[in-house]
Amino acid sequence: MKKKVFVFFPDGVGLRNFAFTDFKNIGEQKGFDITYWNNTIFSLKENLGFNEVKIEDHSSHPLLSIYSRARKRAELNVSRDKFSDGVYSTYKFPFNYKGIKNTFKSLYVKWLVGLYSSGKGVVKLRQKINKLERSTSKYRYCKEQLEKHKPDLIFCTTQRATQSISALLAAKDLGIPTIAFVYSWDNVPKAMQVVETDYYFVWSDLMKSQVLQYYPFVKDEQIMVTGTPQFEPHYDTSLKQTRETFFKAYNLDVNKRYICYSGDDETTSPLDQYYLEDLANAVRSLNTKGENLGIIYRKCPVDFTPRYDAVIEKNKDIIEVLDPIWSQIGSQWNQVLPTKEDFKMLYNVCEHSEFVTNVCSSTVFDFVAHNKPCIYYNYEQPQLKKGIRDIGQNYKYVHFRSMPSKEAAVFCFDKNDLKDLVKKILDSQLSNVDECLEWYKVVAGKTPTKASENIWKAINNLLN
Question: What pTM value is reported for the model?
Answer without folding.
Answer: 0.95
